[in-house]
Amino acid sequence: xxxxxxxxxxxxxxxxxxxxxxxxxxxxxxxxxxxxxxxxxxxxxxxxxxxxxxxxxxxxxxxxxxxxxxxxxxxxxxxxxx
Length: 82
Prior knowledge:
Blueprint: H1 7-22, E1 26-28, H2 33-40, H3 44-56, E2 60-64, E3 67-70, H4 73-81
Antiparallel strand pairs: 1-3, 2-3
Helix pairs in contact: 1-4, 2-3
């Protein structure tokens, strides 16, 4: 994951991986944004900003703070390959 070039790509990869692991497009995040930032080699603010962008673009929905519903797997995959 660290070889991916942007925080958005790392986040997309992480969310897709969790979705496959859980066998569902809706799941709870097992890590805080601060922990994700450490895993991604980034800042909490950058991770939060990218979550916000994915929500604004309709790619994910977050009904609660640590719950994610992937609305467009295809668009998350597109982020990885752009």
